Each structure stands twice: as structure tokens, then as C-alpha cells.
Amino acid sequence: MSETLESTVRRICRSHGGDPTRLMDIARDVQDRFGCVAPAAMDLISRITGAPRVEVESLVSFYSFLSRSPKGQVVIRLCDDIIDRMHGYHRVARAFSEELGIGLGETTADGKISLERTACIGLSDQAPAALVNEVPVTELSTDRAREIVAGLREHMDPRRLVTRSGDGQNAHPLVRAMVRNNLRQVGPLVFSEQVRGKAISNALAMSPAEVIRAVKNARLRGRGGAGFPAGMKWEYARASTGERKFVIGNADEGEPGTFKDRVLLTELPDRVFAGMTIAGYAIGAKEGILYLRGEYAYLRPYLEAVLAQRRSDGLLGPKVAGKNPFAFDIRIQMGAGAYVCGEESALLESCEGRRGDPRNRPPFPAQKGYLGGPTVVNNVETLCCVTKILEAGPAEFAQHGSTGSTGTKLLSVSGDCRLPGIYEVPFGTPLAEVLRLAQGEDAFAVQVGGPSGQLVSRTEFTRTIDYENLATGGSIMVFGPGRNLLEIVHAFLEFFADESCGYCTPCRAGTAFLLRMVERIAAGRGEPADLARMEELGLTMKAASRCGLGQTAANPVLTSLVNFRPVYDALVKEDPEGFRRSFELDKAVMEAELLSGRRSKHAGIEKGGHR
Amino acid sequence: MSARPGERQKPKIATVSLAGCFGCHMSILDIDERILDLAKVVEFSRSPINDLKKFDGRCAVGIVEGGCANEENVEVLREFRRKCDILVSLGDCATMGGIPALRNSIPLSECLETAYLDGPTVVNPLGRIPSDEEIPLLLDKVYPCHEIVKIDLFLPGCPPSAEAIFSALTGILGKSRPDLPYELLKYD
Amino acid sequence: MSGPVTILIDGVEVSARPGQTILDAADEAGIYIPRLCHLPGLAPFGSCRVCTVTANGRPCASCTTPVTPGMIVENDTERLREMRRQIVEMLFSEGNHFCMFCEKSGNCELQAMAYRLGIPASRYPGIWPVRDVDSTHPDILIDRNRCILCGRCVRASRDVDGKQVFGFVGRGHGKRIAVLGDARLRDSGVDVTDAAIDVCPVGAILRKGTAFRVPIGQRRFDKEPIGADIEARKEKP
Fold first, then answer.
1. pTM: predicted TM-score of the whole model, two decimal places
2. With contacts defined as CB-CB under 8 Å, which chain A residues touch C66?
3. Distance (Å) from the C-alpha of residue B30 to the closest C-alpha of chain A?
4. Contact B187/C106, CB-based, under 8 Å?
């Protein structure tokens, strides 16, 4: 066995050049092969690649798809976010649990199947959903859960669970996923008719400076959420000195409730790759990396095939055809389940084979990024916009949307609406219009921009989707009447506490304490002063955290405290005797009662007097 | 103890040791002869210092040593909260749980088994964990006082120095919120 | 390199070298910005966030942010002090800190910071995590109950000792310091002479047999608050 382990790990390391900066690939391959990256395997990886042993451990311990202890041959990862919970996650989880005879986080006694929960997998429009190894299964029901387990017991082949393919390229033989695109509204830019190769030939007919000027003239801003002007980013990277420069396509779409990149990668990969190629030409980079989130691994063979096709068509490779031929190629870097890696500097760390702790800035990636070289990191949707700008010209692009926010935005709409899916709308579209399109008009609250965005109430549905008003990376979660606000806020905080990298105090500890405060209030054990304390802590997290995750992790609390204050006020009250309402004597003595077999004398009094 | 007619009622002070070691009370006594000055302006109500077991009226100040480890601690602390205007957490056990809180990351059953059955120094021929009606039930963990009731002033230290206690008390009685100077704010 | 730049810290003009961090410039000028993870000689880390200031109105960690000409820095404001108190209180409540018997008491930077900021007790409920102690090494002890994840040992081991004995594993609240992956200290190759053993701000990494030698009253922070040494530089002509 150890012989097998050693030779296999050796082979895997060799296939990645024994390169310690490729630890992500190495660890993923070892995990796939052995169901874990055991300490013995880590010893070997460290010895073969020269990566310090503690760094290998650090990496394996960081990503939720990697583990040091064995997982089942098949891992079922149930998507556990608020949208899935609203659509029956708990029922489905129970069905899986009963059918398998194990709880969440456990593996069947025969070592065959593990059951886990995971954060949003980019399928909120067809929730509840799960990943069975890499295969997405959607619109789960309790019956479907039992069928899946029965099927797996029979053949242990997740691919055979796909009985019907989804629409569009989901049916492509290399994808064969039951995922549906749910493309509800096609706009004039991103999903417009494409002429393959045109953008690149147009770009190569210009000088790199002219290409950057075109992107600046289109006033293109980053679509991932932060909204940084793309042309400016490129200009910095172009001006930075470095022998190797890089373009990274950020396909680590992890913000709960967003799934637009899934659809872009399925239907428009050429536009994404063309955008990266154009960026490479503009900044003087020869190498591109598409950082694909682990949850979208099912798209990888298809994307590799698209890349291969582009190489044979002269759109990638040592000589990208055009007036000013240049060399550019793209490789795919897989993630392994970490939301924070969507943050561009954490993504760079991950690409270099380390845990995804964000970096200190400065230096910014455009100055010193991947392997120390100037690097541009652009969102997948931004890259599609780049291609469109070079295809149709900046003027055509900028005539859509508003002055400060040109173009269109892809929205991923999910939750309590009849038509969840992708909507390409011009910037400046009121939220109410989006709700009308998706048939979710009776919403009492909408989370715009995912957990890191804002929770808005009905009175604000007139606000518009753009960088100046309601900025969003694309996630629009609709909450209908009867949904519990505190449950929503709690789910979001739980997510941030799970996904915090733990590097800085305000985020690591702040998310943990804020979560406890919300729990207390949701349980009706809060005091008015708690609300002020939550707000204070939230503001500290916003100001003092090191990266975007921590700076926005308190947003669910901060925005709901403003927009839904009466809900909170109704839940808190002052104790007339100055007792802390968070302390419950009968709960605190429960264990002692159980151990001693006698009842508390005092807890009973509390029941009468205090409650 | 009670005021004579015509004399202005002196403010009352109550003190108690919950899950503490009485070290903080020793430190109260360490204010030495200044306790006489104190006695001129205050009167002790329920306190181990005068051995009074029950409150004899409303108190201006309640001083609590120790955190809450069992249900009785909670009841006593709540009574202090009801009967005292200003409640002071005295010492590290009261302010953060202290030594008794060492058990907080260990399951309760394991604590009891080690204390009464398996511990290296245990002599327990009956092999039973005591469970008399008179023994208060333990809480799931040891709580600092401010997690049970509202606390108005914290005096950390193990124990807080007599200096810190005296300066805080005179501050309270002088109706000013005493902020401990650097030399007196200590956690050890 | 161009000549010195001038920045304003709480209204005081401070001269700094281009590329210098706000914190280093402040140190040289005898202005103390509270900090825990930063240690001269080790690469700036920016994890504790106690040194958060505002620079031209925007909050940032002064230990990792370089000065820019004319930068206006706020350091000693009530809002920033309150922020620092919250951060320090959270550090206490997320770990298991028992100052009353800790070998580092009186010489502990976390404790001293709490004193300096005037914290009588943490306002956050204790989490009481289960964390382990490794005393397998004959001369060195690691008590993770007290660790504040400042990364000083990680940096010192990597950059000064050239060993990379220490590293972070896990994430979020479960993050902890590991020794050579999953080794015990005894087998880690760590030496009592390593710089990594000396840099711990709290009592998480200790030399055995050295505790309680300095009597109470004469320890590092008994009389003078943390940062007093830096502030003393201001008095010099």
C-alpha cells in the first residue's frame, strides 16, 4: 500500500513538474486518487516538491474539498445556503441522512459514501442542489435523494445519475450536466450574437495602448462587485515592469446566490477566453490562467476542449493570428472550495499553491501579482464585456447603461420568484423592474449583491442597479412574505464565519461573535443594548478587516439593522431586574440534572418568575 | 447597626464570594486601618466580613467575588442585583470566570469523574459522585458575573490590590465613576 | 530614492522616508501606534489590526501601509481607541487566557495592551475553545490556548531561522499554529536558540524553566505601559 502511495504521489508530482507552486493541482489529484491527502502523502509531497511540510498541511487544511482523513469514494455535498434552505434543504438532507444511515460530515461504514454540507455551489436557480463528486444534481426532493442513494449503491458512478441533460451546452458530450441555464433575459451586449475571432483581430490591428484606450472609453468597470475601472487596472499592469506578466480570469464565483459565471462559462467560453487574450495583448502578458472554482469542475473537460480548439484555430498559442501576432496561452487552475479565493490576492496565493490568505496591499496585483509578475485579475463577465467592446467598439458598449455605469449587468435571480435565472439588464434598471421580470413582486426583502451586499426593504425597490446605487456582483436573492429576517441574516453570518480565512482578528473573531449575537437575538434573548453593540462591532469589522471578506461580513447585520429596524426592536427587551436575558438557568443546569438525576430547585422558579 | 434617630442613614455595602477563593475578600481586609475610615461612612449589610447572612435592607453597593459555577451562585448573584444599586465584579473570577473556568473546555461529566472517581488523589470507597439535595447543581460552564446580571463596575485582578479596591470604593461613594490608574489595573 | 516626505500624525508633523510604513515613521518620531503582530526585524504581517489608523480618512493597518507625501494620519482618536479595545477584547474571549497563573503575566504584550487601553474586562462572551498544549520538547513549550495567531513565530522561523517549523493550519476561528505539519515540538527540529522562540507576544511559546524569575512589580509592564519606550524617543533632542 505504501509502495502504491509513494509511486502514485511521485507520478502525480511529476505530472505537475514537481513544482511547489502547483501544490493545488497536486493535492487535488492526490485527493481524487486516495479520497484524502493523508499525512504520509503530505510527507511525500513535501519531500518531492521541496515545499515545506507545514505549508502542505496548511494548504490541505484550508480548502474544504481537501481533507487529511479519508472520505468516501463518492462525496455528496449538499448545498446549504439560505436559498436551498428555503427550497427544502433540510428535508432533502434528512432523506439522504436516513437513506445512508449517516449524519452530515460522516462516511458510511463501508467507506463508500460521504455526506457533507457545502456553501453555495452556483445553482440557486435550481435549488436544492448538490454535488456528487463533481456531478451537479439539481432540484432535489426527498424522493430524488433516495433514488440517488439507491443508484450510487448500485453503480457508484455519479455520472450515471444524470438521466437528462440540461439545455444549451449543458448537453455537450463533455459536460452532460442536468443543469439548466435559465437564461431569462438576453441583453444587447454580453449575450449578443458573437463573431468568433473578430474581437481579437480587431484588437491586434490596434496598438496595446489603443486597446486600453478602447476599454477606458467604454468606461468598463469590474463586474465582480468592486467596480474598479478595468482600463485603469490594465494600464497599471502595462506600466509595471516585470519579465512575466499574467492575465487571470476570475471564475471563482462564490458569492452565495450568484451563478452567472456558470452560464457564461457554459455558453460563452470563447468570449471569456478572447477577453483574456485581449487583456494579455494589452498589458504584454503571454500567460493566462482561468481560476475555476472547484464547484464548477464538471465544466473543466469542456473548457479544456474549447481552449484546444482555440489553439488549433490560431486564437491561442505561440502565434495568435492577427496584424501584430503575439504569443498567449491559457491554462485552467482549479480551486478547491474556498469563497475567499474570489478575492484577487487570495486567488493569487491559491494559484501559487498556497492557502488562500489574502495579501497585504500595496503592492497591488497589477504591480506584483502571480509569481511576482504584474498581473491583471478580471471577472469572467468583465472579460466578456472586453470582447464585446473590441467587437463592436466602445461607443456601442457605452450607449447602454448609465453614465457612471456603462453597459449591462448579468443578474442571478433566485429565491421567492416564479422565474429564477439569469437576466441581462442595462445598468440603471430599478430593482422593482427586476422583480417584475422574475415575477417576485411580493418580496418583503431582497438581498442585493449576496451576503456581502445589502438587504433592502420594499421602500427601496425603486433604487437602481448600478455602481452608484445598488452595486452588485450579480446576486439577487428574493425573500417573499413570511420569511424570517433573522434566519436570513444568521445564514449569511454563518457563511462568513465558515469562510473567513482567519488571518485578521476583526474578521476571524468578529464573525464568530457577531454570529453569537444574532443567535441570541433571534432566540428572543437579546437586549436593546445588544443592537448597538452589534452595530459597533460591525463597523469595526468594516473598518479594520484586512480584505473585502471581513470588510463586508457584517453587512447583513449593518444593512438589516437600518432597513428592518422594527423587526429587531420587536425581538429585544430590557429585563426589569437587571438580569441578562441571554442567560437561561434551566438550560445551564440541564446537563447537571441529567448527570445527577435530580431537578434544579431554582430553574423551576425561573420558569414561573422570569419567563 | 441600624441608624439612630436623627443620624443620617449611612449607605450600605454587601459583599459575597461565589465561585471564588475568598482571596478577593482577603484583599478587602488588606485595606488595613482604612477600613475604619470606610466604616465611618458606610455600614456593612450581608457580608462574610460581619457574618450577616441576609440582606437587612437595600444596599448602595454590592461587591461580588467569584463567577457563577452553580445554580445557587446564580440565585445569590440575582439577589445582589435586585438589592444593590451599584454592583461591582471583584477579581478575575467575577470578571472573566477565573481559575474555576478552567473547566469550561472540558465536559461536565469528565470534570465530575476526575474529581470524584478517577483523579489520582481520589479516595472514594463508595465510588459515587455526591448528589445530595443540598448540593447545588453545577452549571454547564463557569460564567463571569456580567453574563448573568448587569454589572456596573469591574475590578479585575487576582486578587485586585487593596489599593484598587479602596480607590474604587471611595470613587463610588464619592459618586464619581472611578477609572483605575495604570498601576492599579492588573489581571494578576 | 527621493528625499523625505512629511506626514501629519494627529496634527504632528513627522518626517518619513519614501516607502516607509506609517508605523515605522511614527516609531522613529516617538509616536506610539498600538500593535501586537508587528515586531521590528520581521516582515510586516498586518493580522492583529490593532495598529489600524486612518490615512487621509481611510482606515488601514499602519504596519503595512506606506506613507505618501502629505498623508494625514489619525491615530489617537476615541473611535480608534474603541476599535482597538474591541479587537483586544475579542482576542481575549476567543482564546483561553488565564493571566493569574500565566508565566508571561507582566511581560505579556496582549495583557499590557489591555492595560494601556484601559480594559477592565472583555465584553464578549468567552468561547472557551478546546486547544492543545505541546510540552514534548525538553526546553520549549507551546500552549495554543494563549495563541493570538500573530504569526511572529511563523515569520521568525521562516525568515530568521530558515526552518519553517511553524505554520498556520485550518481557517476562520479554527485556525491554529501547527508544527512541521502535524509533528510534536520534540520532533520538529526547533531549537531553544531559535529566534522563533523569543518573539511570542503572549505566553503561547515559552522556554521551560524560566518562569516567575522576575518578582511582581519589576516585570516589563508593571510600571510602564507598553509603548512607553517608543514614546520616550520623543523627549530626546
1. 0.96
2. 362
3. 31
4. no
Q: Locate A210 and state its grid cell.
A: 489603443
Q: What is the pLDDT of residues A125-170, one digit of tens each?
A: 999 999 999 999 999 999 999 999 999 999 999 999 999 999 999 9
Q: Could you say which of C125, C174, C182 has the minimum Cβ distance to residue A57? A: C182
Stated as kind and residue range, the H or E segment containing A118 is strand A113-118
One domain, residues A245 and A391: yes
Q: In what order do the strands lie in the sheet with C5-9?
A: C12-16, C5-9, C72-74, C52-55, C58-61
Q: Would the CB atoms of A589 and B149 count as touching at under 8 Å? A: no
> Alpha carbon of A206 to those of A203, A245, A272, A315, A344: distances in Å?
5, 20, 20, 16, 29
- Classify residue B168: in a domain, yes or no: yes
**Shortest Cα–Cα distance, B133 to chain C (Å):** 30
CB A222 within 8 A of CB A376: no
Question: C83 pLDDT band (50/70/90 cuts)?
Answer: very high
Complex ipTM more than 0.95, yes or no: yes
- Burial status of residue C10 (CB atoms within 10 A of its CB: 0-12, 13-18, 19 or more): middle
Smallest CA–CA distance from A529 into chain B, residue? B150
- Under 8 Å CB pairs connecting chains A and C tally to 137
* Nine-digit cell string for C200: 511570542
Per-residue pLDDT of chain B (188 residues; tens, 9 = 90+): 444 554 568 999 999 999 999 999 999 999 999 988 888 899 999 999 999 999 999 999 999 999 999 999 999 999 999 999 999 999 999 999 999 999 999 999 999 999 999 999 999 999 999 989 999 999 999 999 999 999 999 999 999 999 999 999 989 988 777 778 899 999 99
Verify that A56 and A98 share a domain, yes or no: no
Encode pLDDT of A473-497 as tens digits.
999 999 999 999 999 999 999 999 9
The reply to whether A394 and A298 lie within a common domain is yes
Q: Domain spanning C6-76: which CATH class is it, in words?
A: alpha beta
What CATH class is the domain C84-207?
alpha beta
Q: Do A513 and C173 touch (CB under 8 A)?
A: no
- CA C215/CA A53 separation, integer angstroms: 41
State the DSSP string of B83-152: HEEEEEEESHHHHH-TGGGGGGGS-HHHHHHIIIIISTT---TT------TTSPPEEEEEE-GGGTB--S
Contact flag C126-B155 (C-beta cutoff 8 Å): no
Q: Which of the residue ranges C1-15, C74-88, C192-206 would you say has the lowest mean pLDDT?
A: C1-15
Q: What is the pLDDT of residues A244-286, one digit of tens each?
A: 999 999 999 999 999 999 999 999 999 999 999 999 999 999 9
CATH of the domain at A204: 3.40.50.11540
> Which residues on chain A are in Cβ contact (under 8 Å) with B75?
602
Boundaries of every domain in chain C = 6-76, 84-207
What are the residues of chain A with a beta carbon less than 8 Å away from any beta carbon of chain B?
577-580, 582-583, 585, 587-593, 595-598, 600-603
* Of A162, A140, A141, the residue nearest A151 (C-alpha): A162
Q: What digits encode the pLDDT tens for the residues B137-156?
A: 999 999 999 999 999 999 99
Is residue B92 included in any domain, yes or no?
Answer: yes
